[in-house]
Amino acid sequence: MAMVAQKRLDNLTRSDKARISRLRTKLLDWFTENGRGLPWRSSRASTYEKICVEVLLQRTRAETVANFYSAFYSKYPDWGALAATPVEDLEEILKPIGLWKRRAVSLNALAKYAAEHGGLFPSERKRLSKVPAVGQYVANSILLFQHGVPSPLVDVNMSRVLERYLRPRELSDIRHDPWLQDAAHWLVCCNDPARVNWATLDFAAMVCRARNPTCPECPLRLLCNFARKLHGKVAEAS
Ligand code: SF4
């Protein structure tokens, strides 16, 4: 198992770790059969594409980004091409996927930094946090895809799976909840953290959906706290 280089995971019990390890195994098994073959997951996708697409994916469905993907990367094949494009032009290009103003500013700032540093971002979280347009989510994608550090792409989807399976977080802001952050780091602490991230995000989109999760067919139904409680309520009512 890979080392968690930058986190001590003090907020997890031994039982939490064991349960999350089982979750990881189940998610990887499910992903082998059901995972989505999205273009940025191809072995041919560059590190630039993998980092940049995470900005496009924020609060946007993967299918929407997939439809937009090849036109975008044909036009901007590297950080240099993106950095040379005025923000207003980027806004126009990004309109079909929404949030174009925010994304254009972020991509432009990231691209300028990358173009000035030979495409290389810092590998330490503290230094990364000082790079323009790098919040927690983008920092994790840089650590994961450029530096090979097991890092979770924690968003509402990953957090929903972890919280239903184990227990709810305490803080409303996902980025600052110590337990959730540690749980997410432990989830991806393995030899193929990118695959675990993709498995979790696909599972959240297709099975453990925000509305109408398909619990009766879910491979986690006998282990999941949410499903157990639901089953208890059904049993009580009948
Ligand atoms: S049993 Fe239901 S709530 Fe639990 S992980 Fe599966 S789909 Fe999500």
Fold blueprint:
Elements: H1 14-34, H2 47-57, H3 62-75, H4 79-83, H5 87-94, H6 100-116, H7 125-128, H8 136-145, H9 156-165, H10 178-187, H11 193-206, H12 225-237
Helix pairs in contact: 1-11, 2-3, 2-8, 5-6, 9-11
Bound molecules: iron/sulfur cluster.
Iron/sulfur cluster binds at residues 161, 164-165, 207-208, 213-215, 218, 220-221, 224, 226-227.
Number of strands: 0
Q: Output the CATH homologous superfamily.
A: Hypothetical protein, domain 2
Kindly report the CATH topology: Endonuclease III, domain 1
User: How many whole angstroms does the radius of gyration measure?
Assistant: 19 Å
Q: Which secondary-structure class do the elements indicate?
A: mainly alpha
The best one-word shape is globular
Q: Beta fraction of the residues?
A: under 5%
The pLDDT mean sits at 94
What is the level 1 CATH name?
Mainly Alpha
Q: How many helices does DSSP assign?
A: 12
Helix % is 55-70%
Distance between the termini: 45 Å
Report on this model:
The protein has one domain: Endonuclease III, domain 1, CATH 1.10.340.30. Helices cover 58% and strands 0% of the residues. The protein is built from twelve helices and no strands. The protein has helices at 14-34, 47-57, 62-75, 79-83, 87-94, 100-116, 125-128, 136-145, 156-165, 178-187, 193-206, 225-237. The protein starts with 13 loop residues before the first helix and ends with a helix. Iron/sulfur cluster binds next to helix 9 and helix 12. The site of iron/sulfur cluster has 14 residues, from helix 9 and helix 12.
